[in-house]
From TrEMBL, chains A, B:
Its EC number is 2.10.1.1. Pfam families: MoCF_biosynth (PF00994), MoeA_C (PF03454), MoeA_N (PF03453). One of its GO terms (cellular component) is cytosol. Keywords: Magnesium, Metal-binding, Molybdenum, Molybdenum cofactor biosynthesis, Transferase. It catalyses: adenylyl-molybdopterin + molybdate = Mo-molybdopterin + AMP + H(+). The keyword Metal-binding applies. InterPro entries: MoaB/Mog-like_dom_sf, MoaB/Mog_dom, MoeA-like, MoeA_C_domain_IV, MoeA_C_domain_IV_sf, MoeA_linker/N, MoeA_linker/N_sf. SMART domains: MoCF_biosynth. NCBIfam families: Glp_gephyrin, molyb_syn. The lineage of its organism: Bacteria, Bacillati, Bacillota, Bacilli, Bacillales. It comes from Alkalicoccus urumqiensis (Bacillus urumqiensis). This is Molybdopterin molybdenumtransferase.
Length: 424, 424
C-alpha cells in the first residue's frame, strides 16, 4: 500500500525549519574577510558622528554677526586667517572682522558660528574675502553627534555584512567583527540513472544536475559545502554512509529518492537512522515531495530529484535554514509585488512557484521563464524570481497582482531610464 | 577661478562607461569554479531533452488499445512483464495483454504507447495488474526532444552563472565552461583626514570607510581587488604612484579628491597622466562629482569621498563597467517599481538616488533608509535599494510610483504569506 502523506502549508514548513535552525558558534574575522557573514553582536559607534562640529561645504567659517547688512551691492569684507583642510585642526580663533577658509568635512574653528559657501563669496590677493549675503548663526554647520552619539548601536546583530555594512563597520573602527561560523552542509545525490557532467550520456541515463546546482545554491546562502557523491543503492550501505556523512556536517541535503514509490528508499534510510520526520509533503508545486527530518541537532533535507522542484525546495526551506543558522534575522527570500504578464487559468489546489523573470514597464511585470513543466531544467537558466500563485479553485489572469520572490541573481540590460522630469 | 563643469545625465554617463568596457580574455574553468562568472560562448544541448521517450509518473507502460472498455467496474487485467527503473533500459516489448511497471523518468518500452499512473491501477500477487480507465495513445509520454533538440542553444553568451545556469550546464555535460577572466581593479583612497579602521580616532580625522566599502562592492561585482592604500599628498609622487598602479590593473578607483576646490588635486593627477576625461560632473545627488577618465584601455574612476556618494557612484558606473567588461549582457542594477512611502516635497534639478529599503503590503513600498544627508554613513548599513527620483521642478509625494534599483543584498524576515486562496 502506498504511504498516505498529509500536505503541510509552505509557511508552516518554513517556520518549522527555522525552529530547528542550528546555533553555530561565533568567530572573529578581519573586516575584509567578513563579506556576506552575519554579525553575531550589535555594533556600536566608537565615537560621535560627526566627532566635532564640521563644515558640509567648501567655504569660509565666519561669525554670523559680522555678515549683518551684507548684500549683493554691499559686501562685507573679512580678513582671511588661515585655511583649514579636512583632517587638520584649526590654529586660530575667528574674531570680529575675520574668517577662515574651510574645506568640506573640516572642523569649525572656535569663534565661528556659520559657514558661507565659496560660491557666495569672492576674494582677491589682499588677504581679504567678501561676503554678499547675511548668514544666520548655525548656518551650514553639521553639529557634533548630530548623526550619531558615541556608544549608539549602528548595526544590529543578525545583519548580513553587505558593502554598506562594511562601510559602517570601517567608519566606526571595527577592523575585526564577531560573526557566526558558516554551516557545513553535505550533498548526496540519489538515483541510479545519474551520470556526472563529464561522463558521456548513456541510454536511459541523465546527468546529475541537481548536486551541482545545490552546491552553488549553498555557496550563495553562505554555507561550506561537501559533495559526497551518489548514495549507494543498497539499503544497509546507504544507511551507513548517510550516518557517517552526518557526523561531519551540520546538515545533509539529498536530491532525489523522496517520491512515493517502491524504488525510492530515502524514507527507509531516515527510519533506520532514527530520524524524526518533520514533513514529507508540502502543499506546493513543484516540490510537493520535499522532506525534512532531524537527528539530534542535525538536519536532513530531502529535496526532489526533479531539478525545478529541487531548486524551489532549496530556496524555500534549505536556504532560509542555512541563513538562520548563521543568525541572519532576514533569512527568507525578499518578496515583492508584480503584475502577472500571462494567464495561468488552470486552477491548482496547491500553491505554485513559477520560475520567472520580471521587467518594468510602468509597473513591475512578471512572466514565466519558459514552459513550467517541472521537467524543464532549461528554464532554470532564465529564472530570476519565483512567481507565487496561491492554490485555490480559480486560476490567475494576466494583470492580476501577485507576490514574487527575488533570487538575488538578476541584472538589467538597461541603463537608467530616460530621465522623466517631475513638473515638466 | 573655479572650473566650470557641465553635468551629464546619468543614463548618458552609464552608456559612455559601457563604450569603454574592457574586453577581457577568456579562460576555461571547471563548472564548480564558475559560479558568478560570465559565459563567453553560447552553450548548446549535447543531447535531446528528453533523450528518449520517457514516463513522467510512476505507473505502468501499456498499449492504449488494450485499455479499451476499461472502467471502474470493468477493469482490464494485464500481465506485468518487468519493472523499468529510471536509468535502466527496458528488456521486453509490451505486447497485447501485457504491461511493464515503469518509474518516473524511465524509458518507455517498445510496444507501449501510454502510461497509466500507479494510483489508477491495482495489482495482486498473481503477476497481473488491473486498469480502471481507458488510456489514449500518447497519454503520459514525454516525447524525445520535446523540450530541447540536440545542438540547440540552452544558455547564451553573456549570461552570469547563477545556480539555475549551473544546473543547465551540468545537465548538458558542460563540466568545463568558457568564461571571461575577472577584471583586476585597484583602489586608492585620497584624503589626509583618513585613518584606517584599526587606528584610534584623532581630532579632525575620520576613518577610511570608502576603500573597504568599495573593495566589498568590487568583490560583489566579480572583480579581483588590490588595495593600494592612500594617495600621496605630494603631486609628483601622486602622479607617479597612480601611473605605476595603472600598470598592473584594468581599472583604478580613487575615492575622494574629486570636488571642485583647491585641496582636491585628482583632476591635476589625471591631467599630468594624460588621461582623457569622460565626465567630471553628473546630474545626480549624491555623487554629482563622480568622474571617469581613460588612459589607453585603462579606466580611472574618481568616486566621491563622501561615503553615500561613493556608494552610489560605484553602483551606477563602476559596477556596470566591471560586469560589462566580463561580457555580462545585463550589467546594470535590476530595476523595479514601487510606491513611495514618504514625501520628498523639495524639488531638485538633479536626479536623486535615495538609499532605501522596501517592503510589500499589497504593493511594493519603498522608504528611505534614514536621513538622506550624504554625510549619513550609517544609513548605508540599512540600504537594500536605491529609490530613483528624477530631477524636476516639483517634489514627490507619498503614494507616487517610482523606480527602484535593487542592490542584491536584501533578505526578508517573513516566511511566505498566509496562503491567500484564489476563488475562496
Amino acid at each position: 500500500m502506498l504511504e498516505k502523506r498529509k500536505p503541510l502549508q509552505v509557511r508552516d514548513a518554513q517556520r518549522m525549519m527555522l525552529e530547528h535552525a542550528a546555533s553555530l558558534h561565533t568567530e572573529w574575522l578581519p573586516l575584509e574577510k567578513a563579506a556576506g557573514r552575519v554579525l553575531a553582536e550589535d555594533v556600536t559607534a566608537d565615537a560621535a558622528v560627526p566627532p566635532f562640529d564640521r563644515s558640509p561645504y567648501d567655504g569660509y567659517a565666519v561669525r554670523a554677526e559680522d555678515t549683518k547688512g551684507a548684500g549683493r551691492d554691499t559686501p562685507v569684507h573679512l580678513q582671511i586667517l588661515e585655511t583649514i583642510g579636512a583632517g587638520s585642526v584649526p590654529d586660530k580663533e575667528v574674531t570680529p572682522g575675520t574668517a577662515s577658509r574651510i574645506m568640506t568635512g573640516a572642523m569649525i574653528p572656535s569663534g565661528a558660528d556659520a559657514v558661507i559657501m565659496l560660491e557666495q563669496t569672492s576674494n582677491d590677493t589682499s588677504g581679504e574675502m567678501a561676503v554678499y549675503r547675511e548668514c544666520a548663526a548655525g548656518e551650514n554647520i553639521v553639529r557634533k553627534a548630530s548623526e550619531m552619539a558615541e556608544g549608539e548601536v549602528v548595526v544590529t546583530k543578525g545583519t548580513t555584512v553587505h558593502p554598506g555594512v562594511t562601510a559602517v563597520l570601517a567608519a566606526f573602527g571595527h577592523s575585526r567583527v564577531l560573526v557566526r561560523r558558516r554551516p557545513r552542509i553535505g550533498v548526496i545525490a540519489t538515483g541510479t540513472e545519474l551520470l556526472e557532467p563529464h561522463e558521456a550520456l548513456e541510454t536511459g541515463k541523465i546527468r546529475n544536475s541537481n548536486a551541482y546546482m545545490v552546491l552553488h545554491q549553498l555557496a550563495e546562502a553562505g554555507a561550506e559545502t561537501v559533495y559526497l557523491g551518489k548514495l549507494d543503492d543498497d539499503l544497509p550501505s546507504a544507511v551507513r554512509s548517510t550516518g557517517d556523512a552526518l557526523e561531519s556536517v551540520d546538515a545533509l541535503i539529498t536530491t532525489g529518492g523522496v517520491s512515493v514509490g517502491d524504488f525510492d528508499f530515502l524514507p527507509e534510510v531516515y527510519k533506520q537512522l532514527g530520524a524524526d520526520v518533520l514533513f514529507n509533503k508540502i502543499a506546493m508545486r513543484p516540490g510537493s515531495v520535499t522532506s525534512a527530518a532531524v537527528i539530534g541537532k542535525k538536519v536532513l533535507f530531502g529535496l526532489s530529484g526533479n531539478p525545478s522542484a529541487c531548486f524551489v525546495g532549496f530556496e524555500l526551506f534549505a536556504g532560509p535554514w542555512i541563513r538562520a543558522s548563521q543568525g541572519d534575522e532576514a533569512p527568507y527570500l525578499q518578496k515583492g509585488r508584480a503584475v502577472l504578464g500571462e494567464d495561468f487559468s488552470k486552477p491548482n489546489p496547491f500553491t505554485r512557484f513559477i520560475r520567472g523573470t520580471f521587467h518594468d514597464s510602468g509597473s513591475t511585470v512578471c512572466v514565466p521563464a519558459g514552459m513550467d513543466k517541472s521537467q524543464a531544467v532549461t528554464t532554470l537558466a532564465h529564472t530570476s524570481i519565483l512567481i507565487v500563485l496561491p492554490g485555490g479553485t480559480r486560476g490567475y489572469q494576466k494583470g492580476d497582482e501577485v507576490d514574487i520572490l527575488y533570487l538575488h541573481s538578476s541584472g538589467s540590460q538597461e541603463p537608467l531610464h530616460p530621465e522623466k522630469r517631475a513638473g515638466s
